Amino acid sequence: MASTRPIRVLIVDDSATVRQVFANELARDPEIEVIGTAPDPYVARDKIVQLKPDVVTLDIEMPRMDGITFLRKLMQHYPLPVIIVSSLTPTGGEVALEALQAGAVDVMCKPGAAYSVGDMSVQLIDKIKAASRVSVQRRTASPAAAAATVQRLAMTRTTNKVIAMGASTGGTEALTQVLTAMPANAPGIVIVQHMPEVFTRSFADRLNTLCAIEVKEATNGDTVIPGKALIAPGNYHMLLRRSGASYYVEVKSGPLVTRHRPSVDVLFKSVARFAGRNAVGVIMTGMGADGADGMKEMHNNGAQTIAQDEASCIVYGMPKEAVARGGVDHVVSLDRIPRIALDLAQAP
After folding, report:
1. What is the mean pLDDT for each group of 10 consecutive residues in the chain (348 residues)?
2. Which CATH class is domain 7-131?
3. Can you tell me the distance from the alpha carbon of 324 to that of 291, in angstroms, rounded to the nearest whole number?
């Protein structure tokens, strides 16, 4: 019989106010139990050993030891799921991305002028539930170093088809592996990765230094052309549009869709409408069902669709839902996604 005990969470933040707000908000969900809080990594270290939490939320800027240093030590000696909670600043975005490379499961921003406590609590609860399902491995090498030695694929001809990708928890590393394998003449790529604003720009900028293709955070009206990947900016939906024979993206605000903004469903449904059989859809690791309905629409409109398999997913949620709804043509491991996507894009 499956265990019904709540998910045990330790909150690590130097602000007593933040610790109290997080504890109060998480207490609203019966599936989560806050077993303790810590004002700095030294106290956190002792409480982790003593209390054995399932998930840790971790601030970055703290006294005595910064969160990144603590995270690296944790991943080497006592690996467990960690969610980074950072300030919504350009510097915070870059450091949070560094934390993902160091082994954090996910990142989110603290409540502020552009991000309410209510929005924070919904997303934090979702991320904690997703993180609790992740089996974290001890870190001995940097994923960025592995990306630097990736084997880049080739295409026999350029195609004007569009590849649309969606991912959530675990998606930053999955997308890094897929995009670094793409050749310079890869089809135009549009991507939704669930991340807060500011963080998506840092993510795109980092990928741009690793990839043969150009990778950028999308702005309204950007064209979708071979050799370029556009990542939806955090807190904005991104839709594919068509003008004559050319594709471009529309970036706009709007309500949350399947609890997200940007939403994979919003992107995929626009791709289904404006690209149809000229598209390839890829759905990867992540909790929930965002993208499942959109992928079904892409499939119904003639697109070829791919889902990451369970064995290679950090969280097998979004791909599982897409398969269950009948919108997936190919279920493959993460390392095979780039080759399959390119072959489908080149097919007549």
Report:
1. 80 93 93 96 96 95 88 94 81 80 88 65 89 78 50 78 96 96 97 91 94 98 97 96 95 93 97 97 95 98 98 95 98 98 93
2. alpha beta
3. 12
